[in-house]
Amino acid sequence: MNATTTTTSNRILIETGMSEDAPRPEVSHFESFDGARLLYRAWIPSAAHATKAVILLHRGHEHSGRWQDFVDHLDLGDDVAIFAYDARGHGQSPGERGWAPSFQTFVRDADAFVRFVSREHGIAVQDTAVVAHSVGAVVAATWVHDYAPPIRALVLATPALDVKLYVPFAIAGLRLLNRVKPKSFISSYVKPSMLTHDPEQQRGYREDALISKQIATNVLLDLHDTSKRLVKDAGAIRTPTLVLSAGSDWVVKNAAVRRFYERLSSHHKALHVLDGFSHAIFHEAKREVPAALVRKFLVDEFAGAPRDVCVDERAYSKQVFTKLAKPQAALCPKQLMFRVNRAFLKTVGRLSYGISLGWATGFSSGRSLDHVYGNVARGITPLGKLIDRVFLNAIGWRMIRVRKQHMQSIVRRAIAEQAVRHPGRPVRVLDVAAGPGRYLIETIREIDSPVNVVLRDRNVDALEHAKRLAVEAGVGDRVSVEAGDAFDRASLARVSPAPDVAIVSGLYELFPSNGPVLASLRGLADAMRPGATLIYTNQPWHPQLEFIARVLVHGDGSPWVMRCRSQEEMDDLVRSARFEKVDQLIDENGMFSVSIAGKV
């Protein structure tokens, strides 16, 4: 299927082949990532064992029961099972109506549900497609962008990438409200007549007791910010994608939807604008039209082969890196702004300990990172401390500290799992580019089970610092240091004894070429036995990427130009080195991920 944009008229009727004995749903519950028990519906074909799955994500305020009419129209055959769940705070799932700790909570619920369906029904994620509506479509797109699941296809119906709020300065007002009253709510202005032209569907929406009109302020703000990120970085998505847009949408702005679609890197993608349709296209008078478009897209994608592993150096992330690596014209207004910022940081900024350290050792160095992890403002004079506090509070550094928490959580999990696999001996942990190793030293200090840690780095000063930290933490007998190059495949392959847990944290994102990364991963694979665990980080997105490239430097004085590999690209590199990703954590801004993979 070639990338196409078409307009589908209300007057066009398409046969859906809907079966008279369409299955009714089974209703049950699944346990999400944090133990929340969410209600779900499953339409399981009775005639044969399902080998494919379609996951449905409902729009905001609604619930999974609203999908029944769409399922009746879809009719994908006896080998396809369909699943939908009530998002937390919606329908019959628990939680305060319209609220969640963050928008990423909904994304993690989606990830947990797909894993549950795959595990419980024996359907591979590669044989799964997702159909999502409105806010649910933003959840699905965020999940695909941030977690890179190898799903077969993605359908986004009227995605709420830019909600029409109508009130001037609405976002600024909501931010103020959220700051003053963190757990606040607003009520939706949307009336049933703004969603569909069908009088029966309007009545059904109005009388549905499970539909709640309120939405939490923090969720709406997170939706707004996440949507802007997705539109800017849509090129990171390669999944075959169908986008359905309503020609008469009172709820979302279609301009953002089109920009998102045009930036997708998917080779198989299509955009259909449904003339005369309102926002709730699956509940419109001619709802068989979008149902037929979805059906054809899914049938075509299920008939094709699963996506291939791609480690192409021409990837989207390399294009972004190449653009950043090119120097700007001297009189470019942005270049002049960056020069002013650089001049400030090289003069007054040196009063800050963190900025001074960055110029001395590189802002990407292990010592700089150690200062960020410590999160204690230091500097010359009170002004220096104030500048250092502003420096440490930059969004990148704040999310780095979240990454540290995620890394410690996953390290504890990996060590516990390996301790079960290898009773009677210490778990062997290797960090291939540890720097001072503060996060790992702090982690093992809290672990009672036997563990031996090797901190490897090519920076001898950083290793000496690591030894001091280990002694101060009381774990000097469990930690050893070793000089070594994390990109030397042969050197890594000779590591002995074979590590049970290998960690690569904050390293690969500093280097633009995939070749050394593959050499490093394959060296670890050579050293590790099947069943061993790899923990790796990635940086798929950064809102200050250009500022960092134009202003900050590495230890050798060269510009700090980062290659933000998409999560899919990073996972493919890992997969090509004989590891299989098991799970992932990522911060609420989608900037830093920590993943766990098993050696196969």
Helix content: 40-55%
Which class of the largest domain in CATH terms? Alpha Beta
CATH hierarchy: architecture of the largest domain: 3-Layer(aba) Sandwich
- Structural class per helix/strand content? alpha/beta
Number of helices: 21
The spatial strand order of the largest sheet comes to: 1-11-10-7-6-4-5-3-2
Give the beta-strand count.
18
Mean pLDDT: 92
> Shape from CA axes?
globular
State the CATH superfamily name of the largest domain.
Alpha/Beta hydrolase fold, catalytic domain
Please name the CATH topology of the largest domain: Rossmann fold
Cα radius of gyration in angstroms? 25 Å
Low-confidence stretches: 1-20
Counting structural domains, the number is 3
Brief summary:
The protein has 600 residues and is an alpha/beta fold. The protein is built from 21 helices and 18 strands.
Can you describe this structure?
The protein is α/β, with parallel strands linked by helices. It folds into 3 domains: 4-303, Alpha/Beta hydrolase fold, catalytic domain (Rossmann fold), CATH 3.40.50; 329-392, no CATH class; 403-599, 3-Layer(aba) Sandwich (Rossmann fold). The protein has helices at 68-74, 103-121, 135-147, 170-180, 192-195, 199-207, 217-232, 254-263, 288-303, 316-325, 333-346, 353-361, 366-374, 381-392, 395-421, 438-445, 460-472, 489-493, 514-527, 545-551, 567-576; strands spanning 4-8, 26-31, 37-43, 52-57, 80-85, 128-133, 153-157, 185-187, 214-216, 241-246, 269-274, 427-431, 451-457, 479-483, 501-504, 533-538, 579-586, 593-599. Strands 1-11-10-7-6-4-5-3-2 form a 9-stranded mixed β-sheet, sandwiched between helices. A 7-stranded mixed β-sheet has the order 14-13-12-15-16-18-17, sandwiched between helices. Strands 8-9 form a two-stranded antiparallel sheet. Helix 3 packs across helix 7 and helix 15 crosses helix 16 (438-445). The chain is globular and about 75 Å long. Residues 1-20 have low confidence and may be disordered.
